[in-house]
């Protein structure tokens, strides 16, 4: 469905089918979706190092009749302004719930697709292996990331994996002071700038624990502190600190957690399945008596 969709929503829908040079144009427009496009087709092509034919082909791929029509569409979207930060850039206060549902679906599915495409599957497999080997698993996260940690612990505990979550910086530093090689430690931060998570990962790594970061920035303090980094979807413009994480960032973190969880289930040799059955039976006896 193209009619009525904004330019970023169209890009998200068509992105997997675009050529590499066309994706260069797409990435630029998404990163500058809040600004008017003042450049001519020649100027844009020269700025991005692509041909005018590439830009023209890109506009037609999005369903526009030409470059001028695409510029008008982008101007119309940018003039509406951004009332909220850290939500998908395609959304506006004037959107109906139907429009929001379509745009949200497009944004979330596109971000998961981008995360999947850039995943280091050797690092994912290492995470699964180390979770299964560990005597104890720690998840470290602050604010919104802590809720992802709680979900991870909920899943792994029922699978027979001893898991603990630490939500505040003080406790994170205290807990990682006494870990050793029997621990596997995960730090979650969308921006990768959460200081206590980075410092705790570094400390755990120094003490012999296996460490994994889940973040959108592979060059961030959190990513570089860990032995392995699992990189999620990344939004071009910087996030407004403490305003609330991008919705796409949160769903991508959960995507990686679910991937690790399923790996644990399928590679546990049947022990996880038995634990799930035992847990279900125990809960049944307690709540249905």
UniProtKB/TrEMBL annotation:
Gene Ontology molecular function: carbohydrate derivative binding; DNA binding; DNA-binding transcription factor activity
Keyword Protein biosynthesis: no
Stretches assigned to the HTH rpiR-type domain: 5-81
InterPro entries: Homeodomain-like_sf (IPR009057), HTH_RpiR (IPR000281), RpiR-like (IPR047640), RpiR-like_SIS (IPR035472), SIS_dom (IPR001347), SIS_dom_sf (IPR046348), WH-like_DNA-bd_sf (IPR036388)
Residue ranges constituting the SIS domain according to the UniProt record: 127-270
Gene3D superfamilies on file: Glucose-6-phosphate isomerase like protein, domain 1, Winged helix-like DNA-binding domain superfamily/Winged helix DNA-binding domain
GO biological process, alphabetically ordered: carbohydrate derivative metabolic process
Pfam family, one: SIS
Keyword list, A-Z: DNA-binding, Transcription, Transcription regulation
Protein name in the entry: MurR/RpiR family transcriptional regulator
Protein species of origin: Pacificispira spongiicola
């Amino acid at each position: 469905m193209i009619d009525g969709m904004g330019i970023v929503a169209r890009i998200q829908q068509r992105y997997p089918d675009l050529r590499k040079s066309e994706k260069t144009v797409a990435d630029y427009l998404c990163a500058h979706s809040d600004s008017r496009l003042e450049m001519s087709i020649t100027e844009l092509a020269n700025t991005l190092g692509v041909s005018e034919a590439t830009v023209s082909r890109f506009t037609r791929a999005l369903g526009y009749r030409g470059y001028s029509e695409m510029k008008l569409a982008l101007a119309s979207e940018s003039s509406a302004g951004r009332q909220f930060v850290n939500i998908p850039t395609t959304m506006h206060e004037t959107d109906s719930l139907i429009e929001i549902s379509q745009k949200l679906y497009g944004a979330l599915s596109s971000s998961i697709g981008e995360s999947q495409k850039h995943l280091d599957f050797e690092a994912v497999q290492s995470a699964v292996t180390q979770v299964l080997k560990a005597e104890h698993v720690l998840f470290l996260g602050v604010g919104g990331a802590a809720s992802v940690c709680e979900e991870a612990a909920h899943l792994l505990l029922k699978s027979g994996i001893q898991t603990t979550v630490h939500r505040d910086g003080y406790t994170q530093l205290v807990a990682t002071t006494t870990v050793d090689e029997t621990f596997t430690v995960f730090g979650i931060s969308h921006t990768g700038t959460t200081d206590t998570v980075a410092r705790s990962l570094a400390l755990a790594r120094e003490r012999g624990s296996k460490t994994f970061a889940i973040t959108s920035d592979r060059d961030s303090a959190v990513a570089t502190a860990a032995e392995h980094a699992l990189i999620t979807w990344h939004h071009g413009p910087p996030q407004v600190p403490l305003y609330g994480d991008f919705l796409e960032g949160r769903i991508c973190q959960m995507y990686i957690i679910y991937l690790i969880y399923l790996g644990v289930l399928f590679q546990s040799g049947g022990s996880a399945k038995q634990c799930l059955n035992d847990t279900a039976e125990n809960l049944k006896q307690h709540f249905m008596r």
